[in-house]
Structures are given as structure tokens and as C-alpha cells.
Amino acid sequence: MAEGGPARAPRPVLAAAALVAVEGAALLVLAVVNVVLTALDDAGSISLALAGSALLVIFGGALLLLARALRALKPPARSPVVAVQIVALPVGWTLAGTNGRPEIGVPVLVLAIAVLVLLFATAEARDALARDL
Question: What is the pLDDT of residues 19-60, one digit of tens each?
Fold first, then answer.
């Protein structure tokens, strides 16, 4: 990073941050949809449905915060972002294959792979988020 002023995030990091923000926003939208469907339907367990929505809000909000931290070149943000993407890979694979929901699984896979590639494919991105030891 450059001395003397705030460093500008490289394009791959900015793109990865944008994709992580998309993931976070998608989880928030799913939380709202879940609440609406629960209110309109005769849910078997309203408390379970609302707890699921609360988790979606927590994880969506966390992803939005992580996206902001990536954009600000905060190195500690990279590890949780990478962990989320690694978890998303088998989730997307299962949704696309075993569960027969490629319209959901394929975007999950594409986003996860894209974020991982953007964060690790270029030395510029790796260096920008490197931790000083």
C-alpha cells in the first residue's frame, strides 16, 4: 500500500467487494420474502420461520459489512469472505445438482467462484489485502 495517503483498492478487490455486497443483499431480500411468505401462509412453525429470517438478516448484514471492509482494504475481512465462499461452493453444487434447483445453485456457484478468483488471481489483489506480520 502507498505511504502518505489512503490507498485505493485495486479493481479486482472492488469487484469482489461488489459481489459480496450482492450476496449480502440477496440474503436480506430472502429474509423479507421468508417473512412475507410466513405471514401469508399457514406456516407449520412461525417461530422457526422467523428465526430463519433472523439468521438471513444477520448473515446478510455481516456480508455487507465485510464488503465494506474489503473496499476499505481491511486485511482481516478477507478470511471470513473466503470462508463464506468456500461454504457456498457445496451449497450451490447441491442446489444445482441433487436438489434440482439450478436457477438458485448456479448463481451461488458463480458468485463464490468469482469472488475467490478476484481475491487470489492477481498479485495486486493479494498484496492489497496482505497482512503485515
Answer: 999 999 999 999 999 999 888 886 678 888 889 999 999 999
Q: What is the pLDDT of residues 71-80, one digit of tens each?
A: 999 999 999 9
* H or E segment and range at residue 121: none
3-class secondary structure per residue, 43-104: CCCHHHHHHHHHHHHHHHHHHHHHHHHHHCCCHHHHHHHHHHHHHHHHHHHHHHCCCCCHHH
CA dihedral 40, 44, 47, 49 (to 10 degrees): -60
C-alpha cell at 74: 481491511
CA-nearest of 54, 55, 50, 76 to 65 is: 76
d(CA 126, CA 9): 11
Alpha carbons 57 and 103: distance in angstroms, whole number: 22
